[in-house]
Amino acid sequence: MGDTDANLANAIAAIDSLEGVSVSETSSIFRTEPQEKKDQSWFANQVVSVICSEYVTAYNLLNNLLKIENTLGRVRDERFGPRVIDLDVLLFGNNVIESEDLIVPHPRMTERAFVLVPLQEIAPQLQFPDGRGLEDVLANLEYRVDADQIWQ
User: Is there a catalytic annotation at residue 83?
Assistant: First the structure.
């Protein structure tokens, strides 16, 4: 929807401007086919690593990401449908959080090549809180990468 690269750049700039949050790394942008609702344009996906001050919690970060989505024009009207931007807290250090509002690690991230491939680009040695390595998780998925495109 719209200029996806500009939407991602605007989101990253907004994240970097949050108090107590600084962007430390960004992956390349990957074009990925829709996973659930196939009759729509491909998505642009990117993973961003941030450093948070000790007073920024995962909940603070999530609430700020939701505000950024709203500012950039996100409308939540169709599950798995097209969207201007979709910002998620995938991991928060080695924390494991299970609440009504937030689950960390993100509950479906280990099933999604469109998350794991860009994540591997910026954190190839990542270990999930359960001890699994990123390479091991990717090895269990069926997917294909060609330049900046991911099929799954």
Answer: yes
Model confidence pLDDT, tens digit, residues 63-72: 999 999 999 9
Within 8 A by CB and 6+ apart from 20, the residues are: 52, 53, 55, 56, 60
In DSSP terms, 150 is beta-bridged to: 32, 145
For residue 129, give the nearest of 90, 83, 106, 95 by alpha carbon: 95
* Selection from 69, 48, 63, 59 nearest residue 99 by Cα: 59
Give the global pTM: 0.90
CA distance between the termini of the chain: 21
The Cα–Cα gap between 33 and 41 comes to 8
Task: Report all structural domains of the chain as residue ranges with CATH numbers, in order of start.
Answer: 4-151 (3.30.70.560)
Active site residue 39: no
Active site residue 5: no
Examine the residue annotation and report whether 77 is marked as an active-site residue of this protein: no
Task: Quote the tokens at residue 86.
Answer: 């979709």
Q: Which of 86, 108, 132, 136 is catalytic?
A: 86
